[in-house]
Amino acid sequence: MADDADVIVVGGGLAGLVAAAEIADAGKRVIVVDQEGEQSLGGQAFWSFGGLFLVDSPEQRRLGIKDSFDLALQDWMGSAGFDRDEDLWPKRWAEAYVAFAAGEKRGWLRAMGHRIFPVVGWAERGGYDAMGHGNSVPRFHVSWGTGPGVVEPFERRARQAQANGRLTFKFRHRVDALSITDGAVDGVSGAILEADPVERGKSSSRKVVGDFTLRAQAVIVASGGIGGNHDLVRQNWPKRLGEAPKNMISGVPEHVDGRMIGITEAAGARLINRDRMWHYVEGIRNWSPIWPRHGIRILPGPSSMWFDATGTRLPSPLFPGSDTLGQLHYIMSTGYDYSWFVLTQSIIKKEFALSGSEQNPDLTGKSWLMTARRTTNKGAPAPVEAFKTHGVDFIVRDNLADLVGAMNALSGDSLLKLEYVKAQIEARDREIENPYVKDTQVMNIHNARKYIGDRLIRTAKPHRILDPLHGPLIAVKLNILTRKTLGGFETDLDSRVFGNDRKIMPGLYAAGEAAGFGGGGMHGYRSLEGTFLGGCLFSGRNAGRAAAKAAG
Ligand SMILES: Cc1cc2nc3c(=O)[nH]c(=O)nc-3n(C[C@H](O)[C@H](O)[C@H](O)COP(=O)(O)OP(=O)(O)OC[C@H]3O[C@@H](n4cnc5c(N)ncnc54)[C@H](O)[C@@H]3O)c2cc1C
After folding, report:
1. Helix/strand/coil for 240
2. Which of 550, 544, 552, 517 is nearest to 32 (CA)?
3. Shortest CA distance to 488 belongs to which of 300, 323, 264?
4. Which partner for 539 in 166, 341, 484, 518 could form a disulfide, CB atoms 3.0-4.6 Å apart?
5. What is the mean pLDDT of residues 158-174?
């Protein structure tokens, strides 16, 4: 049977778009198959904040940050904690990825028109020792235009290739099987879903109106992770984190269903590190949801006080923005699947950012005027204020007794004792007077403010939580929010997939979240943030280049 293209890419998310653009630019014919409609092109990346992990960038240098490949690799390895035989390729991918982030990543993107917001963010700050988890320095570079600003160059390249006849999109085509002939993957088959004009990100119809079969010399699986499928998240939940949470909200659209992972595994591909996932603990229910159980992640600055469901402050160094996996581990050990931030109006207006392109209209819309308001510190950004007013997880009160009463009413558990919460806040407040203190969270605040980016737009001036001049008081109920899949298909550095016999499966490649962003889990157990979009860029590029080359 004649081939329909040289390569088929399953998934029109960022990884698939990057791979397809590379294949077409290498002069080969490529088909991009996606179960969603054209309006959802770009997948999760469109919704993303567009944060990118870069090392020793001009943006960092301008802010006086001294970064290097060695420091970043030290941080990566300390966070990943690779400890398994299966970590051979993930570790090789990690080293190659850090080199990419310290090398050609920024220039490659820039040549395609991508730009970066000048204040570099500091995610996952750790708090252990130099070899432990976390970013030693700020490295989270927000794309000008957020997620859509990352998708745009690759969509443009793909559209050009479409116009030249080298790339074909097949939307509403859901792959249900891979075809294998004489041991080589050579095509896909599946169902054609009915056209559905549903808005981007909303759940679309699954009504089947036909079927299809496509042949090519190679197939790249770039179908994303499992975060929209809570059954799969629970199935893969690792024992080391306790029981899977009873309640979770979704940080990804429903198309992140993990179905293609099962299909690819059934075809013989080796799926590794499936128990490694990256879910957030600062999820809030979206008052204006787009997808089912839609939750938003708060990207918190360092000052909010963090209490578990019983009203005990999270132990050091589990402060906002320090160690996502450590926080998840601790919270699940309490027997409850939620926790609380307690903060002031002064903290929310400077320190709360919400992850997602639609929650950052200033950066997404590339408006310098709107963005400049972040530094003037007159109020929280409008989307944060909207959550404060409409969000079911937000409580605003003038005094602590009323606040704690409302927190008990919201959770329905009545676990919080006013005197206990008050004693902990007052103790912390006594540590505020001196710049050298015992409380590690307050130390962290002083440390953060030595970085100009934090002092400008991210870390409030230290003050007493119970100081009415900084009020009103705010409590936020934090839910567990599913997001990223860290494990995936084991691949070599050309993104070629290994089979269960540990040999390369001819014709099969995997990229993006489906490949654990490269190798089957280049993050190990933890991420330094901004590494997912970058992982799609790097693994999508490697897969596209290698598949195009192999197509002869
Ligand atoms: C709100 C939000 C904020 C984020 N912020 C950041 C950030 O700041 N920095 C960062 O690094 N990362 C961020 N991320 C994560 C990042 O966006 C994703 O990990 C990444 O975009 C995944 O891309 P992908 O191409 O691997 O998969 P996806 O984007 O999930 O695309 C996969 C595509 O495959 C299609 N598909 C799946 N199965 C099939 C099938 N059987 N047949 C046909 N098609 C199929 C899907 O419809 C989808 O279009 C964020 C994510 C979200 C949701």
Report:
1. helix
2. 544
3. 264
4. 518
5. 98
Kindly report the backbone phi and psi dihedral angles of residue 65, in degrees, each rounded to the nearest multiple of 5, phi listed first.
-85, 125
Residues in the chain: 552
At CA 152, angle to CA 150 and CA 156, rounded to 5?
Answer: 140
Sort residue 20 into left (φ over 0), alpha (ψ -120 to 50) or beta: alpha
Which pLDDT score is estimated for 378? Answer: 65
Q: In what order do the strands lie in the sheet with 208-215?
A: 173-181, 184-193, 208-215
259 pocket-lining for ligand 1 (C-beta < 6 Å): yes
**Statement: residue 505 has pLDDT above 90:** yes
The answer to whether the peptide bond before residue 238 is cis (omega within 30 degrees of 0) is: no
Q: Are 464 and 432 in contact (CB under 8 A)?
A: yes
540 lines ligand 1 (CB under 6 A): no
Residue 6 in 3-state DSSP? coil
Q: How confident is the model at residue 368 (pLDDT cuts 50, 70, 90)?
A: confident
* Pairwise CA distance, residues 328 & 319, whole Å: 12
Instruction: Name the residue of 532, 536, 541 to mutate for ligand 1: max ligand atoms within 8 A of Cβ.
Output: 532
- Residue 108 makes CB contacts below 8 A (sequence gap 6+) with none
Q: Is the CB of 175 under 6 A from ligand 1?
A: yes
